Predict the structure.
Amino acid sequence: MTTANEIADKIASEQGLTKAQGKTIVESVFAAITEAAAAGTETSIPGFGKFKVKDTPEREGRNPSTGATIKVAAARKLAFQPAKALKDALNK
């Protein structure tokens, strides 16, 4: 697993920055994606993919332990659609 700190360290070492500056960059990117998602807009990163907000309608579900029917509330979720370049890199 790769963590945000590992990504920040890699950016810092490749760009000649401090680890703190690298972490600030990574946090800024994540904050921008989060802000766009909260506003309901799509974030597209060419060559990587798109983050889209999708609405899920209210539905009926079952409690697995009792079998009772329950209502699952409508919600918004963040979906990721990888770009072709990323798919191709995964399937080499």
Summary: The beta strands are 43-45, 49-56, 59-62, 69-72, 75-82. Residues 1-39 form one domain.
